[in-house]
Design goal:
By secondary structure, this protein is α+β, with helices and mostly antiparallel strands. The chain is 35% helix and 15% strand. The radius of gyration is 25 Å and the shape is globular.
């Protein structure tokens, strides 16, 4: 499967094709395709139902940029009964299931107009496994120019079983059968006897789950299409930031930073998901202090240790050995990008046969520890799904382990010199910030798609509500003197000041735990400048997703009235805006707030002062374009700081701020 030329080919036809299909009509079609995914398309969806029944994808070769090859291939696989049945679990880490899902991705990404896209989707929806279909259409909508302006319904309302405790699902079924609407309170997975419960609000936050799965849809490890800029470095950076943020949440709750995993030691913390597949039984539970077992058909523990040692050897040598025996230097600013491709590993890895797929195999190994030999025929664990992985504390232990491998590489690079860090046009004279305060609030999400549809029992409104972290809006004021007019690059970081024992971190120790709060470009004039920046402007975060019921209602109203869809297009990849600040504590938790300014020449694009390109490029890049910042991700805290005086340049300003948590707000 290669889609390198798909985007270019489609741009020629999309403008004309979309003239006959409004955005509202296409959004309505998407909503209907993913609604009630385990039930056949409703007869009220006349066009899609007709396509599902009578459309022939192999009869429209001229509507595919590959001449219909992918459509012919998938139809043949279905006719030969080679695809996974419906009403069965799906995991992207299952090789054959992934292949089948990617066959549909291949078909949809080659569709050159919206009619072909949606008619094919309707046809294959009724003939393929539901999990494979949902994954394929979400990836295709993310990457196809035909659907680039559409809004993906939140997965936690499309496939609620993956995000909702089984007890709540059972209550929802009871509500429907008794025709009694219900709004049910959902608790986190563990009891208060488990210290990890203190930070469950982070790993089990459905916005966090959503960000993680959509990041991997934006940057799939299997991607063969048009080259994604700095994909390996983004893999490192997005997961490094998740780990740093998790450590900040732990410190906010009087817990030590998370320990890394070791293949030859037991997994300290068990996990009981309390969730079930729609079809396939309960998610497996892992007890405390579970020693790693070899997983049949996946990996032996000795394989994982060998893979790790080969990667560490490459870091020590300063190069990756390619399949042909030549070397790729990694002791430079681009090395992190290569190393990210190797560790994940993605198809960009220069030598996957030798260096393996440490990250992907680790997810599979951890997910299968409840039944490593298949003795009990258990379904995949939460670690084998990107949408559920962060719920398991072992996810963060795994990524701390890999993060330390990345750090080993970064620590080999020479520290920045004062001359490299200095931008002599700018002198930051001060930074003010309004009060930083967090609180918990109730969040309600719809469970309608968790329930089966029948003609004899009417639907009733069923929702779940759960406590989630949020914060009051805040504003930075950055005071900077410029010698002359200029466009500048502004990076804002937040870092815990103290460890769990209230001992102040050394700068070189805690710089690896810096959290990127914002990255933006602004014009300054000669003289004094006040750069005001609001929390909701952050380029690492996204606001709450539009709920599925709202999306359905808005699209239907727009189509009925012939008006425009009154919802802006938005990316699904992005850290939840609500979780931008760590929780802090009641007394005010001390953090270093660092503002670092460099020149506008760091900008890759010319329009960054007025165009935020989707507003989530800090962790998710710019979709289909180059990452906007030329500097390494995490600059200037990505390298060792052996001498604090080096970073004391006029264009850097650091001060201590406090993050308060209002425990009485609810």
């Amino acid at each position: 499967m290669r889609w390198t030329t798909v985007a270019v080919a489609l741009l020629v036809v999309v403008a004309g094709a979309e003239a006959s299909r409004s955005r509202a009509e296409r959004q309505l079609g998407l909503n209907r395709l993913v609604n009630k995914i385990t039930s056949p398309l409703s007869s009220s969806y006349a066009e899609l139902k007709e396509a599902a029944t009578n459309y022939d994808p192999t009869a429209h070769d001229d509507h595919f940029s590959d001449g219909g090859a992918a459509a012919h291939n998938l139809v043949e696989e279905i006719q030969d009964h080679h695809v996974l049945e419906q009403h069965h679990w799906f995991s992207l880490f299952n090789t054959r299931q992934r292949e089948e899902a990617l066959m549909l991705v291949d078909v949809l990404l080659h569709a050159t107009d919206s009619d072909t896209f949606f008619h094919c989707a309707a046809y294959f929806r009724e003939k393929m496994n539901e999990g494979e279909f949902i994954y394929a259409i979400y990836v295709a909508v993310t990457h196809s120019p035909v659907t680039s302006d559409l809004i993906l319904p939140p997965l936690y309302e499309v496939t609620p079983h993956m995000f909702t405790n089984s007890e709540i699902i059972n209550k929802a079924y009871t509500a429907k059968m008794t025709q009694t609407p219900g709004n049910f309170n959902m608790e986190f997975s563990s009891s208060k006897k488990n210290p990890e419960t203190r930070v469950a609000y982070f790993g089990e936050d459905i916005g966090m789950n959503s960000h993680h799965v959509h990041w991997h849809m934006d940057f799939p490890f299997w991607w063969h299409g048009e080259h994604i800029d700095r994909k390996g470095e983004l893999f490192f950076w997005a997961h490094h930031q998740l780990t740093a943020r998790f450590d900040a949440e732990r410190l906010s709750n009087w817990l030590s930073p998370v320990d890394e995993l070791h293949w030859d030691r037991p997994i300290k913390d068990g996990f009981a998901p309390h969730t079930s597949y729609k079809f396939g039984g309960e998610f497996p539970t892992r007890p405390d202090n579970k020693a790693f077992d070899d997983v049949d058909g996946v990996a032996r523990m000795s394989d994982m240790i060998i893979t790790e040692s080969r990667i560490r050897d490459a870091i020590a040598h300063g190069y990756i050995e390619k399949e042909d025996g030549t070397h790729v230097n990694i002791d430079d600013v681009h090395g992190i990008d290569v190393l990210g491709d190797v560790i994940e590993s993605s198809v960009y890895s220069p030598n996957a046969a030798y260096y393996g797929a440490l990250h992907n195999q680790a997810h599979r190994v951890l997910g299968a520890q409840a039944d490593p030999h298949g003795k009990f025929n258990m379904p995949p664990g939460v670690m084998e799904h990107f949408e559920t992985a962060t719920r398991d504390p072992a996810f963060f232990r795994l990524h701390k382990y890999m993060d330390n491998i990345f750090k080993e590489h970064k620590d080999k690079l020479p520290p920045y010199t004062k001359e490299e860090l200095l931008h002599d046009n700018i002198h930051i004279t001060g930074v003010d910030v309004t009060e930083l305060k967090t609180f918990f609030e109730d969040f309600e999400n719809d469970l309608g798609n968790a329930l089966d549809t029948t003609e004899t029992v009417a639907d009733v409104k069923v929702t779940a509500h759960v406590a989630r972290l949020n914060h009051e809006p805040y504003t930075y004021n950055i005071y900077a003197h410029a010698d002359h007019d200029e466009t500048i690059t502004v990076r804002v970081y937040l870092t815990p000041k103290y460890d769990e024992n209230q001992i102040a971190y050394d700068m070189d120790d805690n710089r690896w735990g810096t959290i990127l709060m914002d990255l933006f470009w602004v014009n300054v004039h000669a003289g004094d400048n006040n750069i005001e920046r609001h929390s909701y402007d952050s380029t690492v975060a996204i606001p709450d997703r539009v709920s599925f019921p709202t999306l359905i209602q808005k699209a239907e109203e727009a189509v009925a009235s012939g008006s425009e869809l009154d919802l802006p297009a938005s990316r699904a990849c992005g850290h939840p805006q609500r979780l931008l600040l760590p929780k802090g504590n009641d007394y005010g938790m001390d953090f270093w707030l660092d503002v670092f300014i460099s020149g506008g020449e760091d900008a890759v694009h010319d329009d960054l002062t007025e165009n935020d390109h989707g507003g989530t490029h800090g962790y998710c890049g710019i979709h289909g374009q180059k990452y906007p910042d030329k500097k390494p991700m995490g600059y200037p805290f990505d390298r060792r700081i052996p001498d604090h005086r080096v970073v004391k340049v006029p264009n850097h300003f650091g001060r201590v701020v406090q993050v308060f948590h209002d425990s009485h707000h609810h």
